[in-house]
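Interim report, section 4.2 (structural modelling).
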Amino acid sequence: MKKSNINDVAALAGVSIKTVSRVVNKEPNVRKDTEQKVLDAIAQLNYRPNTSARNLASKRSYLIALLYDDPGLYENPSSNYVLNLQQGALRICKSETYDLLIHPCNYRDKGLNEEVLSLIHNSRVDGFLLSPPLSDQKSLIDTILKTGTPIALISPGDKTAAPLSVYTNDREICAQMTEYLASLGHKRIAFITGHSEHKALYERQLGYEDGLKQSGLKVYSSLIKEGDNSFRCGEYWTHKMMKSKNPPTAIFCCNDDMATGVLRAAHKLNIKVPEQLSVAGFDDIPLSAQIYPALTTIHQPVRSMADRALKILMDKIRNRESDLHESNVLESSLIVRESTGKAPK
Amino acid sequence: MKKSNINDVAALAGVSIKTVSRVVNKEPNVRKDTEQKVLDAIAQLNYRPNTSARNLASKRSYLIALLYDDPGLYENPSSNYVLNLQQGALRICKSETYDLLIHPCNYRDKGLNEEVLSLIHNSRVDGFLLSPPLSDQKSLIDTILKTGTPIALISPGDKTAAPLSVYTNDREICAQMTEYLASLGHKRIAFITGHSEHKALYERQLGYEDGLKQSGLKVYSSLIKEGDNSFRCGEYWTHKMMKSKNPPTAIFCCNDDMATGVLRAAHKLNIKVPEQLSVAGFDDIPLSAQIYPALTTIHQPVRSMADRALKILMDKIRNRESDLHESNVLESSLIVRESTGKAPK
DNA sequence: TTGTAGGCGTTATCAG
DNA sequence: CTGATAACGCCTACAA
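Predicted structure of the assembly:
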């Protein structure tokens, strides 16, 4: 069957193409029976509107670009995070008959702004969804906004100046985790930080400090180690710290990968987890439930965040009033598994 | 600055729009100096061709759809696999100025064919990349091919009838792994199979059987357990088998997730790996290097496969003669880590 | 409620 | 080598 176009449908239904257009786009002002005639014709001809033509005429692309950081060729530091983002975004795209373009990029790349402008200027995308650390790139965001293209941000570090954005209660939940560890009797709770350039990760450290204070413990800078989110770095600091004079009895990591490194180092050093050392992570990657001992960690509702962010974005694109703008903080939750326990005396 | 179009460029350069078009599309038959005039005008006006217009006129979309199975809302069984696919595909897209549309779907879904037809019929995509188990869905593939849209397949089970496709030497490498285990003195080597619907996974089992035979060992059906690629199922079978009268001394799993389950079950049962039990997986997910003991496994060049598949697809789309069609088997490799060792006596 | 005319920014055709 | 002109299929304005 040949591809049919709007003219074929109009001819078959005995109406004008504009009427067909109205029916297809669910515009008002079409009589029920003419609408039915058109629908029949569409069905009979198996007609589907041509996206390019529609885009050209309407100056829309029905495409959203998801931008995320893709640091290196042979690392997948946060494959789970990215996939959850995609799934959340796709869910909304589907219901709005949009498609999703994925655009991994290096946030350090100077050509990034140009690359993104290109997507906009040739009418390629109608909106952007930026995840951290791209959601912290002021210059990138400004570049996009200047063209009038809508953006939604996931977990931006700066919550004030941002346009549409969605966060979690990172700080509070990290305080909670720290208090939980303190409640188990731990006095020396170490913290391995995340990538310093990712501002939202700094919130986690603040939460850790809050938690210590709220538990009546002091913040020792010697117990705060600078990490880079990598497995290796969890191993490294564990070796360092556990061999020191006054080792911690609990280590709280800014992400699960580092916590896994801690676990592995503990194995090597023959330190029993959780009997001799408690370990907590952040992210709740699938691995954390599979490893032995299963990791106590924090679950971020990444998919829901992407979902929510895209909803807001679509509202903006479609010029709908959105009632969502107020409630854009989603709750993370504590997942207690096997890697944390009472402090040794 | 206002968006400029091809007419603006033509006017400024003092040529016709067709000449501009020629330059933009790198067509022959343009004098060097007129080309330069046009390029200057383009630079000056910051001109970028409008994708929708181009698509409409050329009946191309400059979009490739990547189809993969997305079994459930809250599972991410193979996030790493999917991400590698995406990265490989994106690499080629970038160099060909294509963009990538991701399209997770349920291969059991009856509406899938219709969904895909929709992508084609409204000129949304120029080609498809299908990964397993979608690359085994004859009806889906036929549906697409019937429209004349090119497809490339990753690891289809049926290597003969397939159009453009890319495989690995799954069977051989699994034989190799089995022989390796046998060479360590193991006589009772168990195998946990993958999802039965995914044909390429069956090749792995055949390889296991080959390996046993080549090592002079018998194939015992009691040592072959039907798995479903899940962590849980690795745990389950390990508990079952290790409590039986005549337990295996090595377990080879069709994927790393199941192998991780084996590892965890062994921990629980207080069975030492690799001293009392050797464990091998397949996939080389990041976890496999981080877990303790680190997993012996098989690395599939997923990214390169996607890369290669997309190259072939692009050749087809662009009507180029491809010299790649012959060499579409990429080699997997054995990664020996800590989870395998000499058989206990 | 429906239809007509014109234009969106390219690429393709074919003549020069 | 270059250019005028007609598609491409739809949408927006405006008319009826």
